[in-house]
């Protein structure tokens, strides 16, 4: 039997492809609505208030660690928070998700975007990190995160979530200099922000390129990858592992690996073993249970988990996760069962 590791050793070992005692697991959107304790808190505060009040953000960050036994905390925040410091107004609506008040579509608008210091515009996030770290102690790692340039650009340009990303893609193709100016600014802001999160205490950071899967590999390589590469290369000096995540990225795996990061996050539309083979075993991998499986019977959850864990045989460096965020109506008991099943089936 392998010596018992702390959650932090387990997680950092997996990021570095070093053997572990059992597969570490965390869950995207674990600090959110599927938890009754979150929904109770949310009745008294708006989402943005909860993000901006470090004590509440820290408390929500800790909920899944306390209740689910996951191997890492992820900071309760949102990828859109840096927009305010850029001078862009937005709000979260209860039904349509986030809305950007004045979408960014012209060279002048891009020029006016502010590159502020995260210590000034996002001090509340950094304070929440410090509070969480004090509570977590040295045994459990904290994941910080940022949206990636493309995903943030798509919100800025479209003004919210989009079906086809047409306005975004047309900025790329019709005014590549405006696209470059926007992506360059976003890359600087994201690098500063992730660096500040690590300095405040984040042990690992994840770059969420959630919507990059809408791109052809040709456009990803030309219009997105160079900026992600700048960020991922720039982060190396902080010595914290980086998870490079996108959904629907089966067409982009080789390019994502080439962009950088220690761990590549994949969703369920590809089998984990073929994804890992294509990325190469010099990177760790994160994923990739379909979030819908958590609505199924425990026996099915177990079968799906076993299939994923069996695909990792012979290689070090798997972090278990869903392929994308846990859905808000997921039964809480099934999420807890998932964590226990992953630990039980992967124990060595
Ligand atoms: O993973 C975690 O638990 C940490 C917290 C976290 C949130 N958002 C909390 C949240 C993280 C990492 C995010 C990232 C995020 N936010 C992404 C990338 C992740 C992904 O899903 O690919 C994106 C695209 C956003 C933007 C965003 N924020 C949307 C589209 C929405 C509304 C739709 C939705 O799914 O809720 C939000 C709101 C949001 N972010 C909530 C939470 C808990 C719900 C707020 C509420 O009503 O309580």
Write a concise keyword list for the protein shown above.
single chain; 348 residues; alpha/beta; TIM Barrel; 7-stranded parallel sheet; two-stranded antiparallel sheet; 9 strands; binds coproporphyrinogen III
Set down the secondary structure blueprint.
Layout: H1 7-15, H2 36-44, H3 47-52, H4 54-68, E1 73-74, H5 82-85, E2 90-93, E3 97-100, H6 107-112, H7 118-121, H8 123-136, E4 142-147, H9 149-158, H10 166-174, H11 176-200, E5 204-208, H12 217-223, H13 225-234, E6 242-245, H14 253-259, E7 263-265, H15 272-279, E8 284-289, H16 298-310, E9 318-322, H17 332-346
Parallel strand pairs: 1-4, 4-5, 5-6, 6-7, 7-8, 8-9
Antiparallel strand pairs: 2-3
Bound molecules: coproporphyrinogen III (CP3).
Residues 28-33, 42, 47, 74, 76-80, 92, 97-98, 145, 161, 208, 210, 324-325 line the site of coproporphyrinogen III (CP3).
Describe the protein.
The protein is an alpha/beta fold and 348 residues long. It has a domain at 7-87 and 115-146 and 189-208 and 238-346: TIM Barrel (Alpha-Beta Barrel). 49% of the residues lie in helices and 11% in strands. It contains 17 helices and 9 strands. The protein has a 7-stranded parallel beta sheet. Helix 11 (176-200) packs parallel to helix 13 (225-234). The longest helix has 25 residues, at 176-200. It starts with 6 loop residues before the first helix and ends with a helix. The mean pLDDT is 97. The structure holds coproporphyrinogen III.
